UniProtKB/TrEMBL annotation:
This is DUF4350 domain-containing protein. Residues 40-248 form the DUF4350 domain. It holds the Pfam family DUF4350.
Length: 367
């Protein structure tokens, strides 16, 4: 094929079709992705899509939940629910669901570096640990910047067993851990009280707790003082992937709770709803079967096409008739104005002929 014939084959219709395909793919991609920080469908550096994919690869159920009622369906023992930076306060009913899950032997890991609603959540769950909220820096033991301290003091406990280190990203520290701390900074860390990234008078070096594990009833609540410890970029930092792997290996199921955080695309929310709603799956399956029959059965296609053509044809004819039907006087007036050279007898004769034609067409339509 020559260049000229190739160019001739690329018609405007082909170009339009290609544009529509690209447009549909772009809209589809936008509908199932997110740009919100910490969002599980955000594949940028500040999203958690890698953690979500890692968890999904080891689970038969969707790893993300977007409603607190999901806690009612979780098995207690062997299930870990990760809550990252909740932005909306949990209602009394939601708290009751989480507490019941922990009472059944479930584990909740809360990762956050702000006080706000998270400290309230910790109190409502009966946990002693609280988030300090002030920025943590460690000029002695860090990754690229003192704002990214590397934590190597991990106590000998089941939660962090085998995790020699992990890295925080502009996190904070825990207060009131009451002996439940399972990870601490080096002795050269400090709290940057005024946020100037400098050690000032009144800011002292010391070791701070950054993770705790506390038994509540038959379950456990783990607190990590950094909401971004599992974001895509931080999983590439020293020890963080090992931390995620340890959590996966030590539990039968891991779930990401985004019921009180933004960033889940509407299409994903709909898919999650379909996944847990049996009657909706049945209805969708019925429509799929009907569509398959219509697509593959030529007789059904022909009958549907015939019916559709008949309905459309009757509608068009009816609309056309309604648009041209005139009274006898209107026909006479129309013909007189259109043909002033005709005499009265001729105008009336033609008007009567037009009326008979309209009546005949109406009878054909009724039949």
């Amino acid at each position: 094929m020559t260049d000229e014939s190739l160019l001739a084959a690329i018609t405007p219709r082909v170009l339009l079709g290609g544009f529509l395909v690209v447009l549909v793919l772009a809209v589809g991609a936008a509908a199932v992705t997110s740009t919100a920080t910490l969002a599980p469908y955000n594949s940028d550096w500040d999203g958690t899509s890698t953690a979500r994919s890692t968890i999904a690869a080891q689970s038969s159920a969707p790893p993300v939940v977007v409603e607190a009622t999901a806690y009612d369906r979780f098995a207690g023992n062997g299930t870990l629910v990760v809550i990252q930076a909740p932005r909306d306060a949990y209602t009394a009913a939601d708290i009751q669901r989480v507490r019941a899950f922990v009472a059944r032997g479930g584990t909740v890991l809360i990762a956050e570096d702000r006080r706000t609603a998270t400290n309230q959540l910790l109190a409502q769950l009966g946990v002693s640990a609280r988030l300090d909220g002030r920025p943590l820096r460690d000029p002695q033991q860090y990754y690229r910047s003192p704002a990214l301290p590397v934590i190597t003091d991990t106590a000998n406990n089941s939660t962090l067993r085998g995790v020699d280190e992990f890295t925080l990203n502009r996190g904070t520290v825990l207060r009131s851990t009451d002996g439940t701390a399972i990870a601490n900074t080096s002795a050269f860390a400090y709290l940057d009280r005024n946020g100037n990234e400098q050690l000032d008078s009144g800011e002292r070096f010391r070791s701070y707790p950054v993770a705790s594990s506390e038994q509540v009833g038959s379950g456990r609540v783990v607190v990590v003082s950094d909401s971004s410890v599992f974001i895509n970029q931080m999983l590439e930092r020293p020890g963080n992937q090992a931390l995620l792997t340890r959590l996966l290996d030590s539990h039968d199921r891991v779930v990401l709770d985004y019921s009180h955080a933004p960033g889940t695309p509407p299409v994903v929310v709909l898919w999650l709803w379909l996944h847990r709603t049996v009657w909706a799956q049945a209805v969708l399956g019925g429509f799929a079967c009907l569509a398959a029959v219509m697509w593959t059965h030529r007789g059904v296609q022909q009958r549907l096409s015939t019916v559709a053509a008949h309905v459309v044809g009757r509608f068009m004819r009816s609309s056309s008739m309604e648009s041209v039907v005139l009274t006898s006087r209107e026909r006479v007036q129309f013909l007189t104005e259109r043909h002033p050279e005709w005499d009265t007898e001729r105008v009336e004769r033609i008007a009567e002929s037009m009326e008979r034609l309209n009546e005949s067409a109406a009878l054909d339509t009724d039949e």
